[in-house]
């Protein structure tokens, strides 16, 4: 399969390939996102291509054995197992120095966090050979790659030692967005309507490997059933494998994610620490930072509130889906071929779908802004909530508030539904109430525009015309 999407990343790789200097690239992104595929497919036939992948939980000796095997496969003669990474790199240096045909030399070290485990000495050796040899050879492209985003950022991207400032490029590979997901599936001759694509994305996200499990000729509901719920389902045990592969203290990361999964409106740091039992300070801050850098959680703060009073929210689609539907399903050994089809008729489905759709809109905020035609004037965004102050007070909550430089604010309501949304008198009154409460409590003098974001748009009846200023459909998310 050719590389689908990833236009920006391919441009980076092409620039490195055409460079007349030595290049050092770091690639990072979550498990199964397509990092290895991207690098391999682009560089495999563009010169001498040497690739070694670290093995999880393997010791230094085992990793060096693997190096010996890979070296032998690449250069035709298997060497003795190197005694150290210094010996391994020296062997590699001497061999590539004999390359005289002028072609590029691509050295790809995949799953670097596993290669550079504690006491392995790998990272120090890598630093030495880049600084003293590889960086002086204009034909070399050195690529390091890892799934543990926080490790890669700390140890490589923001390295304060011998690799400080040495990178010439970095790629943070994210899951496919909706448009890329559509393109990826079409390349496999799978064509689903955009509503079904959206529903599929709400369940498994845009992780390339997950999307390879989607079968042609089946609806999104049928695919979700087979991928997640049937005996031997490929994603049945993915949740724990995912976190184990990314974080050394994964039980604490899972605890945070599970807690946020139960509190969908988000949680302040104080609330989160109280629920998880984590202590305030460096370790908990690191866990939250790692989850943010890996794209699992999002930190937002409400309009005119201090940044430190913001909330953490779970935005990883598969994690939310697993915690909502799969975790208890498998603990009860409740195998049922019609499970997901039956779930879709329940109120709990609508609750999850609404939250998942809202999360996608927040994740792809730039597409929402573009769809509303606010690219030039949009300056910031947040949520907003006003808790009831008395028994008579209803309180108010707005899903998304977009602040603009033209003294205007869009108050966005995000609604998931299976057909064109219809505003009735009661809902119109709710929208008007939220708008009045926002102005009253924030004391803003900006123009306020009520905005609807729905899959199919909203019917422009009299109630719509009385209270809605903007609307966009899911089509904006595919732009």
Task: Give short descriptive properties of this protein.
479 residues; alpha/beta; Rossmann fold; Arc Repressor Mutant, subunit A; 4 domains; 5-stranded parallel beta sheet; 21 helices; 46% helix
Which structural class matches the secondary elements?
Answer: alpha/beta
Number of strands: 12
What's the CATH H-level superfamily name of the largest domain?
A: P-loop containing nucleotide triphosphate hydrolases
Calculate the terminal CA-CA distance, rounded to whole Å. Answer: 24 Å
Q: Briefly note the CATH topology name of the largest domain.
A: Rossmann fold
Q: Quote the average pLDDT.
A: 94
What proportion of the residues is helical, as a percent range? 40-55%
Low-confidence stretches: none
Strand order within the widest beta sheet:
2-3-4-1-5
Q: Tell me what portion of residues adopts beta-strand conformation.
A: 15-25%
Structure description:
The model has no long low-confidence stretch (mean pLDDT 94). This protein folds into four domains: 7-172, P-loop containing nucleotide triphosphate hydrolases (Rossmann fold); 178-236 and 333-359, no CATH class; 240-319, Arc Repressor Mutant, subunit A, CATH 1.10.10; 365-478, Trna Endonuclease, Chain: A, domain 1. It is elongated. The protein contains 21 helices and twelve strands. The longest helix is centred in the last third of the chain and has 18 residues, at 425-442. The strands form three sheets. The chain has a five-stranded parallel β-sheet, sandwiched between helices. Strands 8-9-10-11-12 form a five-stranded mixed β-sheet. The protein has helices at residues 7-18, 35-43, 60-75, 85-97, 112-115, 122-132, 149-157, 178-187, 194-204, 208-211, 220-229, 238-246, 250-262, 269-276, 282-293, 317-331, 339-343, 347-363, 365-371, 425-442, 462-467; strands at 23-28, 48-53, 105-110, 140-146, 169-172, 297-300, 311-314, 378-386, 396-404, 408-414, 447-453, 470-472. A hairpin with a 3-residue loop joins strand 9 and strand 10.
């Amino acid at each position: 399969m050719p590389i689908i999407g990833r236009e920006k990343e391919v441009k980076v790789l092409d620039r490195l390939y055409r460079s007349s200097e030595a290049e050092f690239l770091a690639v990072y992104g979550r498990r199964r996102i397509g990092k290895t595929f991207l690098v391999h497919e682009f560089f495999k036939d563009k010169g001498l291509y040497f690739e070694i992948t670290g093995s999880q939980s393997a010791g230094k000796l085992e990793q060096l054995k693997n190096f010996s095997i890979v070296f032998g496969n690449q250069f035709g003669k298997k060497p003795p197992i190197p005694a150290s990474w210094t010996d391994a790199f020296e062997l590699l240096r001497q061999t590539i120095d004999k390359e005289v045909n002028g072609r590029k030399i691509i050295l790809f070290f995949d799953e670097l966090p596993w290669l550079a485990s504690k006491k392995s000495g790998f990272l120090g050796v890598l630093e030495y050979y880049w600084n003293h040899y590889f960086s002086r050879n204009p034909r070399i492209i050195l690529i390091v790659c890892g799934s543990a985003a926080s490790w890669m950022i700390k140890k490589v991207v923001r390295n304060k030692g011998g690799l400080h400032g040495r990178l010439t490029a970095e790629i943070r590979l994210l899951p496919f967005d909706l448009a890329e997901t559509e393109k990826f599936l079409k390349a496999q001759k799978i064509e689903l309507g955009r509503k079904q694509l959206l529903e599929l994305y709400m369940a498994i996200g845009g992780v390339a490997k997950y999307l390879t499990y989607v079968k042609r000729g089946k609806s999104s509901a049928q695919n979700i059933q087979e991928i997640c719920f049937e005996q031997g389902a490929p994603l049945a045990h993915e949740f724990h494998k995912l976190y184990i592969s990314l974080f050394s203290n994964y039980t604490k990361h899972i605890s945070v994610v599970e807690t946020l999964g139960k509190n969908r409106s988000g949680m302040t740091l104080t609330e989160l620490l109280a629920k998880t039992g984590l202590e305030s300070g460096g370790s908990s801050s690191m866990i939250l930072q790692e989850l943010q850098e890996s794209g699992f959680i999002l930190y937002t703060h409400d309009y005119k509130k201090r940044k430190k009073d913001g909330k953490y929210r779970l935005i990883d689609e598969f994690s939310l889906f697993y915690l909502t539907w799969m975790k208890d399903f498998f603990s009860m050994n409740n195998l049922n071929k019609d499970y997901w089809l039956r779930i879709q008729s329940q109120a709990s489905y609508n609750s999850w779908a609404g939250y998942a759709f809202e999360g996608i809109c927040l994740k792809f905020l730039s597409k929402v802004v573009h769809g509303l035609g606010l690219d030039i004037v949009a300056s910031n965004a947040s949520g907003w909530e006003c808790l009831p102050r008395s028994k008579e007070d209803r309180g108010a909550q707005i899903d998304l508030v977009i602040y603009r430089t033209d003294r205007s604010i869009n108050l966005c309501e995000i609604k998931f539904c299976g057909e064109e949304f219809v505003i009735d008198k009661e809902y119109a009154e709710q929208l008007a109430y939220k708008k009045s409460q926002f102005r009253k409590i924030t004391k803003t003098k900006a123009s306020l525009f009520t905005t609807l974001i729905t899959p199919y748009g909203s019917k422009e009846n009299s109630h719509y015309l009385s209270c809605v200023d903007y609307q966009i459909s899911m089509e904006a998310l595919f732009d």
